[in-house]
Design a protein that fits this description.
This protein has 20 helices and three strands. By secondary structure, it is mostly helical. The protein has two domains: about 160 residues; about 260 residues, Neurolysin, domain 3 (Orthogonal Bundle), CATH 1.10.1370.30.
Length: about 500
């Protein structure tokens, strides 16, 4: 076997362990009984250590060096070498005992978070979250020293290869200066219109689920390689060829669960559309989390809050819930789905206020990683940030600093990818509609085929063949441009352009 084929076979086995971990993490969140938490944490920690051991096998370094001199490799194989090298560099920076400790700490913290969120009990979560943060700081220092990065950039690099806080700071400072005044303008304009009545529930969970499944099918989700379930926090997870999504239901408001399903289906379409020929290799993985979030936000925000989508969906909603009257008309539903308001919950936020939620979390996690703020001060700092950026103060930690699962589950450095994803989504959707003017009319007919075909060809099928900036430039003709996102907001919410 050549050095490259040795590497490919080896990382196929690493991928198999990652797939097993993915299913266990889904099970933890969706169906695992609470009493199994400690045993499951031990199992997950062992698999994490085994995966880490395989990824850092000393032979990998030798194979990488030998394969670099192989002139017979094609572009996909060369890109795979680059991605294997990236994984190897990141994993070898961490000792196995830190990997194990982090795995156990996040398992314990995530389980305690579920109870703490329900009871609005930050004090009860604090010691668990403090241990997760301590280990994240330790991992950040180790990775930073190995890769020549600052602590926060070392964590960000796991989710956004090549991403840097300095670039994000500039983008987010620009948005933070633009969005509050723009939101004021939009809210004032909406206040001058007659207020639309909300569809009246209750909306039984089984009917909401049926609606979600119907929309997933319209989007092109492959039910032979995935499923829909329920969890405390909606997510997309699972394994190669087993891409599972979750949502959560509220019988007084079907839109929240539906938009959650649409969002997670966007993630799932990316996973199901990755290059099959290289599945199990790092080069087949999604390029970055900003691109991953762009796929979910493109579906949820760009496509499924369009007038065309609501025109298609309105009669389906009426049929599902037996609705009738003005509140169920397409125009009224569209106005509700594009209504801007200052709320507490990120996953329910409209696309005008959503970036402010992300900017808040980004600034807080940077301060916490840098040890510039005591973790015990997080609730107060969160509330102050919400007041400054959104003009609202959460009445409880349940709808404040306890609402997200990311920090308890070890996702530090992840949050900025949401807003990077929103900007990327606007740019990709703009390019797709320019390339194929039938995309929006087709959505109005309930046909997502043209849109998904464009995404498959320009994003999904490339996996990690290209770096993020190159992939976006190839797809849209330019690197990330916040102006496209701003223009979209002005066009949709103020009718400009």
């Amino acid at each position: 076997m050549t050095a490259y084929s040795e590497l490919s076979a080896h990382f196929g086995r690493v991928s198999a362990l990652s797939n097993a971990l993915g299913i266990l993490h889904w099970d933890n969140a969706a169906v695992m009984p609470k009493g199994a938490a400690e045993t499951r944490a031990d199992s997950v920690a062992l698999l994490d250590v085994l995966r880490h051991g395989m990824a850092t096998d000393p032979r990998v370094g030798d194979w990488l060096e030998a394969a670099a001199n192989d002139d017979g490799l094609g572009p996909w194989e060369k890109a795979n070498l680059r991605e294997i090298g990236r994984v190897y560099a990141q994993d070898t920076a961490l000792p196995a005992d830190l990997v194990e400790a982090s795995s156990k700490a996040t398992s314990a913290c995530e389980m305690r978070w579920r109870k703490a969120r329900e009871e609005s009990d930050f004090a009860g979560l604090l010691p668990y979250l403090a241990e997760v943060l301590r280990l994240q700081r330790e991992a950040a220092r180790a990775k930073g020293e190995a890769l020549g990065l600052g602590d926060y950039d070392a964590l960000l690099n796991d989710y956004e290869p090549g991403g840097r806080a300095a670039k994000i700071d500039a983008l987010f400072d620009d948005l933070a200066a633009f969005l509050p005044g723009f939101a004021d303008e939009v809210i004032a304009a909406q206040a001058r219109r007659p207020k639309d009545e909300a569809p009246q529930g209750p909306f039984p969970v089984e009917k909401q689920r049926a609606l979600g499944l119907r929309m997933m099918a319209a989007l092109g989700y492959d039910f032979e390689r995935g499923r829909l379930d329920v969890s405390t926090h909606p997510f997309c997870g699972g394994a190669d060829n087993d891409v599972r999504i979750t949502t959560r239901y509220d019988e007084s408001d079907f839109a929240s669960a539906l938009m959650g399903v649409l969002h997670e289906t966007g993630h799932a379409l990316y996973e199901q559309g990755r290059p099959r020929a290289y599945l199990g290799q790092p080069v087949s993985a999604a390029r970055s989390m900003s691109l991953h979030e762009s796929q979910s936000l493109l579906i949820e925000m760009q496509a499924c809050r369009s007038k065309e989508f609501v025109a298609f969906a309105a009669p389906v909603m009426r049929e599902t819930f037996g609705g009738s009257g003005p509140a169920w008309e397409a125009d009224a539903l569209w106005r509700r789905y594009t209504r801007v308001s200052r709320g507490f919950i990120r996953v329910d936020a409209d696309e005008v206020t959503y970036p402010a939620h992300v900017i808040l979390r980004y600034r807080l996690e940077k301060a916490l990683i840098a040890d510039e703020m005591p973790l015990a001060d997080l609730p107060a700092a969160w509330n102050d940030g919400m007041k400054a950026l959104l003009g609202v103060t959460p009445p409880s930690d349940k709808v404040g600093c306890l609402q997200d699962i990311h920090w308890p589950s070890g996702g530090w450095g992840y949050f900025p990818t949401y807003t990077l994803g929103a900007m990327t989504a606007a740019q990709l959707f703009d390019a797709a509609r320019t390339a194929d003017p039938d995309i929006l009319p087709a959505i109005g007919r309930g046909d997502f085929g043209p849109l998904v075909a464009w995404l498959r060809a320009n994003v999904h099928a490339h996996g990690s063949l290209y770096e993020t900036d190159e992939l976006l430039t190839r797809a849209t003709g330019r690197p990330l441009d916040a102006g496209v996102f701003k223009a979209h907001l002005k066009r949709r919410y103020l009718g400009e352009g």
